[in-house]
Write a structure and sequence with these properties.
- With 531 residues, the chain is of the alpha+beta class.
- Among the domains are: 15-113, no CATH class; 122-174 and 463-513, Alpha-D-Glucose-1,6-Bisphosphate, Chain A, domain 4; 285-427, no CATH class.
- Helices cover 27% and strands 31% of the residues.
- The chain has ten helices and 21 strands.
- A five-stranded antiparallel sheet has the order 1-21-20-3-2, covered by helices on one side. Strands 4, 9, 10, 11 and 19 form a five-stranded antiparallel sheet that branches.
- A hairpin with a 2-residue loop joins strand 14 (369-372) and strand 15 (375-378).
Length: 531
C-alpha cells in the first residue's frame, strides 16, 4: 500500500488533497528561512526603488511626455514601459509585501501557542531540582513563615504559587513571564508594518502640484483648496541650496483654516492627505522679465522704417505653448552692435525702443523651444533652449513678431523689423513642486511600530525568571533550598564572600533574611560539598 494512503489525520481520516496543499503552504510560510529570503528580496527591491526615485526623474507617462520625440529609443522605451512610475506601489513590490505578510502570520501562529503557554504558566520544580549543583541550600534557626516567604517574592514582582507536601513547603514563582512573548510581539508588529505598507501601496495615491505664487489647487475628495503665497530658495554663504520653502494657505470656502511653511521635512497634513515639499523648477511658459539688447541707431533718422509685414500664421496663444504654429522665416544676425541698448520687458508691458518708431512686448516664452515638422512646440520642462517671441508695434498696430533664443543669439526667426537684437538674460518664474499623497495604512504602520517596540523591550530588557524555594524542618532546624533560573549571578564586585560570586542577588538576599548559623550556605552552585 502507498505510504500516502496510510497517512491519517488526528480523527483517523485520510487527508484531502486540499488539506495537503494547505499544510504544505503553511509549512513553507512558517519556515524562518523562507521569511529571511523574502525580507532580503524586499530590502533589495527597496534599495532599487530608492535609486529609481532619486536617479531616474522621468518614468512612465512623465517619460512619455518628456521624451515625446524619442519614444522609439530602447532606453526611453524601458523608462516608459518597464521602469515603474511609483516603485513602491508597483505589483512586484506589493507581491513581496503580501508574501512577507503571510510568512509573518504563519510564524506568529506557529509560535504563539507554545510561547503563550510559557508566559502564563508557573511550573512546579522538576524532579531533584534542589539536589543539583545549581541550588543554594542552607539551614537556619529562625523558622521561615509561609507568609514571609511569599511576601519576600511578591515584593520583587514574582507571581507565586505554593503547596505543602510531606511536611515541606514548596513555592514556585515566575517574574516577567510576559517576556517570552517578546518574539511574538516583534513578529506581530512587523506584520502590522507590512500590512500598512501593503495597504498604502495598494490604495494610496501620489500626484504632483506645480504652483506659482498666487496659484491655487484643489485637494482631492475634500472641500479644501491650497494656495501658494510665496516660494523661496534659501542659499548657504557658499552659494549652495540650503532649503526651499513654500508658504501656503489652506482654504475651506472663503475661510483660511491654516497658514504654514512647507519644508522638505515639514509636510502639511489635512484629513489623511499630506503635502510634501518635493521639488521646484522654472515655469516652462512664464517669465518675470527678459532683457533684450538691441543695436539702437545713433540718429533717429537712420532708424529702420520698413518691415516685411505680419505673415498669415497661427501664433501660439498666450498660456497655450503647445498650440501648433508654422515655422516663421529665419533671419541671421550678423551685425556688430555699434550702440547696444538694453531694455527690460515684462509680461503685459510694451517698451519703446530707443531711436526707433517701434515698441516691443513679450508674447510667448518657451523654456525648451522645439520644431517638429515645421511646427513649434514645448519639448520639455527643462531650460534646454529658452526662446522668446517678441511682438513689435508701430503705434497701436502690430507689425510683426520674432523668436529670439538665449543660447543661439545669432539666429532669430520671424517677421519683425530689421533690428539687430538678442536676449541678454531673463528672470524666471519659479514653480514649487508639492507632492500630494495619501497614506491610508499609516494607522497600521504606527500600530506596528508600537507593537514592535513592545516586543523589543520584552525581548532585550526583560528576562523571564523562575524561582523554586523549599522549606522543611530538619533535626531541630529549618532547611531552605533555592533554585533561581533565568538570570545571571550578581556582579562579583558586590560579593562579600566567596560563595556570593556564583549566586544571584536574590539568593544572597534570601540567605541574609534567613541567616545560617555559620554565615554561609551548606551548598551553592560550583561548590561540590554534599549536605
Amino acid at each position: 500500500m502507498d505510504t500516502q494512503d496510510q497517512r491519517l489525520d488526528v480523527k483517523g481520516r485520510r487527508p484531502s488533497p486540499l488539506g495537503e496543499v494547505v499544510r504544505a503552504l503553511y509549512g513553507l510560510f512558517s519556515d524562518p528561512r523562507f521569511a529571511i529570503i523574502i525580507i532580503i528580496a524586499v530590502a533589495i527591491a527597496s534599495i532599487l526603488g530608492i535609486l529609481v526615485v532619486d536617479q531616474v526623474p522621468f518614468r512612465g507617462e512623465v517619460a512619455r511626455q518628456h521624451f515625446a520625440d524619442r519614444q522609439s529609443d530602447p532606453m526611453v522605451w524601458l523608462l516608459i514601459h518597464v521602469v515603474p512610475a511609483h516603485p513602491f506601489r508597483c505589483l512586484f513590490f506589493r507581491t513581496l509585501l503580501a508574501l512577507l505578510s503571510l510568512s509573518l502570520l504563519a510564524c506568529v501562529i506557529k509560535r504563539w501557542r507554545h510561547l503563550w503557554r510559557q508566559a502564563l504558566t508557573i511550573p512546579w520544580p522538576p524532579a531533584n531540582a534542589f539536589g543539583g549543583r545549581g541550588a543554594v541550600v542552607w539551614q537556619t534557626d529562625r523558622e521561615p513563615l509561609e507568609s514571609d516567604v511569599i511576601d519576600f517574592l511578591k515584593r520583587r514582582l514574582f507571581v507565586v504559587r505554593q503547596r505543602k507536601q510531606d511536611g515541606a513547603l514548596t513555592v514556585t514563582a515566575v517574574r516577567f513571564g510576559i517576556a517570552k512573548l517578546g518574539a511574538v510581539f516583534t513578529h506581530l508588529g512587523f506584520l502590522f508594518l507590512v500590512i500598512g505598507g501593503l495597504w498604502m501601496a495598494s490604495s494610496g495615491f501620489s500626484t504632483y502640484l506645480w504652483l506659482r505664487p498666487g496659484d491655487r489647487a484643489e485637494i482631492p475628495e475634500t472641500d479644501a483648496v491650497i494656495e501658494l503665497v510665496d516660494f523661496r530658495i534659501e542659499m548657504t554663504p557658499q552659494g549652495r541650496i540650503a532649503d526651499y520653502i513654500s508658504e501656503v494657505r489652506l482654504w475651506e470656502g472663503t475661510r483660511v483654516i491654516r497658514e504654514m511653511e512647507i519644508e522638505v521635512n515639514t509636510p502639511l497634513r489635512y484629513k489623511g492627505r499630506s503635502l510634501y515639499q518635493s521639488s521646484y523648477r522654472q515655469d516652462p511658459t512664464a517669465v518675470r522679465s527678459v532683457d533684450l539688447v538691441f543695436d539702437a541707431p545713433l540718429d533717429p533718422s537712420e532708424s529702420p522704417v520698413g518691415h516685411q509685414g505680419l505673415q498669415d500664421m497661427d501664433r501660439p496663444a498666450e498660456g497655450h505653448p503647445d498650440a501648433d504654429s508654422p515655422m516663421p522665416p529665419h533671419k541671421p544676425v550678423t551685425e556688430v552692435f555699434a550702440n547696444p541698448v538694453t531694455v527690460t520687458l515684462r509680461p503685459g508691458e510694451r517698451v519703446a525702443l530707443e531711436n526707433t518708431p517701434y515698441a516691443a512686448a513679450i508674447d510667448t516664452f518657451l523654456v525648451d523651444f522645439r520644431i517638429d515638422g515645421g511646427r513649434i512646440r514645448l519639448a520639455s520642462h527643462e531650460p534646454r533652449n529658452p526662446a522668446f517671441l517678441v511682438n513689435f508695434f508701430e503705434g497701436d498696430s502690430l507689425i510683426g513678431g520674432t523668436w529670439y533664443f538665449l543660447l543661439h543669439p545669432g539666429m532669430p526667426v520671424g517677421d519683425g523689423p530689421d533690428i539687430a537684437m538678442r536676449v541678454g538674460g531673463y528672470d524666471p518664474v519659479m514653480q514649487t513642486g508639492l507632492e500630494l499623497a495619501t497614506h491610508p495604512g499609516s494607522a497600521w504602520v504606527w500600530l506596528g511600530i508600537g507593537v514592535m517596540s513592545l516586543g523589543t523591550i520584552l525581548s532585550f530588557f526583560l528576562r523571564r525568571e523562575r524561582v523554586w524555594l523549599r522549606v522543611r524542618a530538619r533535626e531541630g532546624a529549618w532547611e531552605l533550598a533555592l533554585l533561581h533560573v533565568g538570570t545571571s549571578p550578581q556582579d562579583p564586585g558586590f560579593a562579600r564572600a566567596e560563595w556570593e560570586k556564583s549566586v544571584t542577588s536574590l539568593a544572597v538576599k534570601a540567605v541574609d533574611k534567613w541567616k545560617p548559623p555559620g554565615g554561609s550556605p551548606d551548598r551553592w552552585p560550583g561548590q561540590s560539598q554534599e549536605t
